[in-house]
Amino acid sequence: MTLSTPIAVLGAGSWGTALAAHLARHEQPVHLWEYDKAQVLAMQRDRCNEKYAPGFAFPELMKVTHSLKDAVFGVQDILIVVPSFAFRQTLQSLKPLIDKSHRIVWATKGIDEKNGQLFHEVVLEVLGRRAMAILSGPSFAKEIIQKLPAAVSLASEDKCFLDDLVNRFNRGVLRVYTSNDIVGVQLGGAGKNVIAIAAGISDGLSLGANARSALITRGLAEIVRLGLAMGASRETFMGLSGIGDLILTCLDDQSRNRRCGLALACGETLEQAKKQLGQVVEGANVAEQFLLLAKKHHVDMPICELVSRVLHQELTASEALSELLSRQPKEEKH
Asked: Is the pTM of this model over 0.90?
C-alpha cells in the first residue's frame, strides 16, 4: 500500500468529514461517500460540508460521491464512519462490490443494534474473515478539522494492516498509538457514551465536581468489568480508547451524549433531546446493548442500568440519583 492509493471513507457526518479531510490534507486521495444524495450534491457544489463542518473548505484530493461503487473503485482500504445503526447495512451494501483483498477499518463507536454484536463480529459475519481494524480515542471532529493536536488508538490483529494505517493516519498533529485489543478498544469507545450521559445528568442537576468525578470513576469500573468478562485487557481501558475518551466525552460540551444528559436533567425526553441536538446520540443505544451483554456475562453495571431507565422514562433523573446513592456500600473493585 502506498499513500497515493485512494482510501474510501464511508459516512460524511462530522467525524467522517474530519477524518477524510485529515487524510486528504496529507496527500492521500480520498473518496468520501454519503448516502444522502441532497447532501452530496450540496457538498459537490460548495466543496464543503455546511451541515456538519461549516466553513471548512475541502482539500483538493477529497472527492465526494453518492455512488458506493465509485467510492470503493480503485481502493484497498475502506474506512467506515457511519452511525452505529447503519453499520450492518453499510457492510451488506459493500459486500457485492468488494473482494477478500479489501481491508476494513471503522471509526464508528457503538454496538450492533440487531443482536448486540461488537462490530468486528458483524464484519466477520457479513464480509467474512479479512484484515480489519478500529480507530478510536479522545477526538472531537471539530478540533481535527481545525488541525489541533490529538491522539487516538488503532487496534487490529493484523500487523501489516496496522502498520499501513499508522502510516496513513499518523500525520501532522494526529498521533497514533497501536493495540491488538480490538475488543477492549471497541468497548471503551462505546461505553464512554453511556457514562457521558450520566455525567451530563449529574451536571444538569448541579450536583458538583465531586459527583461528576465519582460517576466517571465508577463508570469506568463498569466498562472494565464488562471488558474483562469479554476477554479484553485491563490495560486498554487505562489508555486513550478507555479513560482518555471517557474524560473527553464526560467533561466537554462538544459531546452530544453529555449534552443529552444535560437535557434529560432538565426534564426533556430522549426524543426531545435528540431533536434539539440534531445528531445521533450513540449512548442511548449502547446503554441497552451493554445491559444485555452485562446479563450474558454476569456483570453488574448499575450506572448503565439507571441511564437506560431514565432514557426510557422509567425514572426521572433525580430518582435515578436517589437509587444510585441508596446502594449498599461495597469494597472498591474494578
From this structure: yes
Report the topology of domain 7-180: Rossmann fold (3.40.50)
44 to 25, 68, 75, 159, 220: CA distances (angstroms): 18, 16, 21, 36, 42
CATH topology of domain 191-325: N-(1-d-carboxylethyl)-l-norvaline Dehydrogenase; domain 2 (1.10.1040)
Active site residues: 192
Q: pLDDT, tens digit, for every residue of 207-261?
A: 999 999 999 999 999 999 999 999 999 999 999 999 999 999 999 999 999 999 9
- Per-residue pLDDT tens for 149-160? 999 999 999 999
pLDDT at 329 over 90: no
Instruction: Please give the Cα distance from 3 to 7 (Å, whole number).
Output: 9
| Sign of the dihedral through C-alpha 167, 82, 122, 299 | positive
- Asked if 216 and 248 count as a contact pair (C-beta separation under 8 A), the reply is no
